[in-house]
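Hi support team,

I submitted a single chain yesterday and got back a structure, but I'm not sure I'm reading the token output correctly. Could someone confirm the output below corresponds to the sequence I sent? I've pasted both exactly as they appear in my results page.

Thanks,
R.
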Amino acid sequence: MPFSEKSLVEDYIVKKLQEKGWKLIPADELERESLEEPLLIPNLVRALKRINEEKGIGDEEIRHVLNELKFKGSGIEGAKQILNFYKFGVPVKFEKERVVKYVELFDYGNIENNEFIITRQVSYDGRERIRTDIMLYVNGISLVNIECKNPASLAESWFNAYRQIKDYEGTVPELYKYVQIGVACEAKAMYFPIVPWQEDVKVYEWREEFKNSVDSMIEMLSGERLLEIIRDFLFFRVEFGNATKVITRYMQYRAAKKIVDRVVKSIKGEDDKNKGLIWHWQGSGKTLTMIFAAN
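Hi R., thanks for writing in. Yes, this is the structure output for that exact sequence:
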């Protein structure tokens, strides 16, 4: 679909993500405590109770989880811990049983048990006030920031949207310690991991067969795939002595899933094939494909 205005890009993305199961809630109807609080606390509390009901979670354990999230720093160590919380849950001591359990923030086993909210033009207060084009929340936690530019403009491109998100990272660090993925969009959609302590990060374009750049990105952001990426295809790595985040590219994602599928079927005796050949071009990240598969 060709776009002639920035608003058309936003409208299209919101509409298509709604079709993928995201619930649109206007910014002024979000259950927010203040412009300084990035989390949707009531939504998160309901999700914690719903997902961890069998663990016997109570108010004290929920309060502990909220404090663990809120009081984590926005620097490298805090970001590492928050991503680990997303993947494995928050370790909490349940006083009644005197045992430590991991309280899950997302239900990876039952996607329908999560709440997927899309909203637009949301303001956040930090060093200055910012207003994001599109924000995606899962269980009250902001995970994806999408910024859009006018595809018809010769003065702007997706790169301007990318720089805008990078500026926002420094302006409202308490928000971007939670956000994991940035998307810079015009006629082309580019995505990247949120790494506030780095001036620049690598950007990528997701590709789906027979789909354009924006529609491919929408497929990547379907609720189930987004959570899959958070859990299995996003991690910290030290490059040249500097900590950064690595996020999967489309060919790595597909190859890793095929590897795992073949291994599992071979172990179960469902398929006698126990090897295969994956063709990746130079610079495509073959080492990372192996890491993603092992993960």
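A quick pointer for reading it: The longest helix spans residues 250-268. Let us know if anything else looks off.

Best,
Support desk
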